[in-house]
Amino acid sequence: MAEVRVNLEAHSYTIHIMPGGISHVGALMRRLPLGDKALIVTDENVCPLYAGTLTDSLTAAGFTVAMVTVKPGEGSKSLTAANAVFTEAISKGLDRKSPIIALGGGVVGDLAGFAAATYLRGVPFIQVPTTLLAQVDSSVGGKTAVNHELGKNLIGAFYQPNLVVIDPTALETLPDRELKAGLAEVIKYGVIADQNFFADLAAAAAALLTREPAVLATVIGRCCELKAEIVAQDERESSLRMLLNFGHTVGHAVEAVGGYSEYNHGEGVAIGMHAAGLISKGMGLCKHEDVEILQQLLSRMGLPLTAPGYSPQALISYLQRDKKMESGKINWVLMTGIGQVKITREVTDSAIKEALAQIT
């Protein structure tokens, strides 16, 4: 078992990384000042795998448990799904000390977190992520949101969890495609903050793809440490935390153009990181070799580099309503080398168009 502390003064919390951790959630929650009612939010894929174990853990700890199960996929990050969570919470009499628990991947975490942030103006929130992407990224840091038909994550709040319990053994049931999607976010941490970690990932690629438990646990822990360090310095993404958006600007556009069904989030981020690398090279910020190294690792992890058949103009239309836009310009996160990035708004249209032409 490992622990990572996210230091945010009054909003600080602990990430517990422990094999079999789902069966210990109830006991860990009892250390917190919570009420006796709890609401689990999960999806139809995860529910039959882990909801019983979590429910038993909560019941043994004295909680009365309710549950909302949504359809898997990006379509459940919606106001309609959030309303279903609110309805269940109200009907079961959840009060301001009643926790909402996210059991699932990034979609479930974002949905449950948004509901927790807004139900009764805020109730306790517990993250129990079951995908690699959620374990290394979306469950930590307090970003919650639902989508709008005009863009991703446009309706949301910064709302920190009270507790995160990461059970690496849950990855044993994760489909290969979803494992690889999580590896995209893992690679991101190496690019933005830790050259040595990036090199370690390249050496451990085979072990990660075959889900060696010790390697996965080490990688998850390092990603959580890196994110905790960044979030502790910039909780609400006013400056430093923007670095975590590397690859996400174009990545979100790729997801949106595909109707959130052709490419999942990690695949979109992989394509977006490739695009960001190409823009960086086009702007003279990094060497050609840096982009090649990134391309090679993404490919080794089985991730896409391009979105064939997509229209650059369609991608640009989504870029123009990116939530990171300020005064008509996007805050781009670009590479200056492996392990180093910078935030800039001074990116030429020609560099963007040239990169988009190479990924479509």
TrEMBL record:
Main location: cytoplasm
GO molecular function, one term: 3-dehydroquinate synthase activity
Lineage of the species this protein comes from: Bacteria, Bacillati, Bacillota, Negativicutes, Selenomonadales
Family to which the UniProt record says this protein belongs: Belongs to the sugar phosphate cyclases superfamily. Dehydroquinate synthase family.
Bilayer-crossing regions: none
Cofactor binding description: Binds 1 divalent metal cation per subunit. Can use either Co(2+) or Zn(2+).
InterPro entries on file: Dehydroquinate_synthase (IPR050071), DHQ_synth_AroB (IPR016037), DHQ_synth_fam (IPR030963), DHQS/DOIS_N (IPR030960), DHQS_C (IPR056179)
The EC number(s) this enzyme carries: 4.2.3.4
Catalytic reactions of this protein: 7-phospho-2-dehydro-3-deoxy-D-arabino-heptonate = 3-dehydroquinate + phosphate
Binding site for Zn(2+): E185, H248, H265
Gene: aroB
CDD domains: DHQS
Keywords of this entry: Amino-acid biosynthesis, Aromatic amino acid biosynthesis, Cobalt, Cytoplasm, Lyase, Metal-binding, NAD, Nucleotide-binding, Zinc
Localization terms from the record: Cytoplasm
Annotated ranges, domain 3-dehydroquinate synthase N-terminal: 68-180
Pathway as given in its UniProt record: Metabolic intermediate biosynthesis; chorismate biosynthesis; chorismate from D-erythrose 4-phosphate and phosphoenolpyruvate: step 2/7
Enzyme class: lyase
Domain of life: Bacteria
Span of the signal peptide: none
HAMAP family found in the cross-reference section: DHQ_synthase
Protein name: 3-dehydroquinate synthase
Cited PANTHER family: 3-DEHYDROQUINATE SYNTHASE, 3-DEHYDROQUINATE SYNTHASE, CHLOROPLASTIC
